[in-house]
Amino acid sequence: MNRQPKTITTISELLTRFVSDRCGGVSSVEFALIGPVFLALIFSILELGLTMLKMSLLDFAVADAAKLVYVGTPPTQSELEDFICDKARFFSACKENITVELTPISGFEDPPSSDAPCKDGDDVDQIAPAVTYNAGGANSIMYMRVCITTNIVTPGLGLGVNLVKTGTSRAQVISQVAFMNEPFTASPGTSSPGT
3-class DSSP state for residue 35? Predict the structure, then answer.
């Protein structure tokens, strides 16, 4: 007598078997214990991925913005903010939440010692931080810091708890770059003769 085990052929049979499980709800208890930890882990992974994507996009945008400055044609602070927001498209309400600081420094080993100033567009009581915006001259060593505040997907779980936040629980995404201006001869913002 050769008995073959019964195979489940339809989804309805599978669901019937799951519902009529004779384990007395052990699966439900296990899920109640493990489920929240598993979901917290999944949402933390999602938060980490989104944060890394935003950081990478901001880094690339700031590197491109630095090129505008060091070739001798620096845009205004507002134009630079617009340029960065256009390049880093993943930030919602970027223009209301961006702070760009550009300042000359004495050497590459001497960056500003203060924290990057961040503006939170959701905080109606916050006064926009005062930042330096000085494009420097030829051969100046420059330091650019950009901060954008962004929403957190899981503010009370995993990575969301440990991110640097503003008063309205938005994460601060900061990028910085140091560079030396080219030895341009015309004053910044003007074209040299013959061009």
Answer: helix
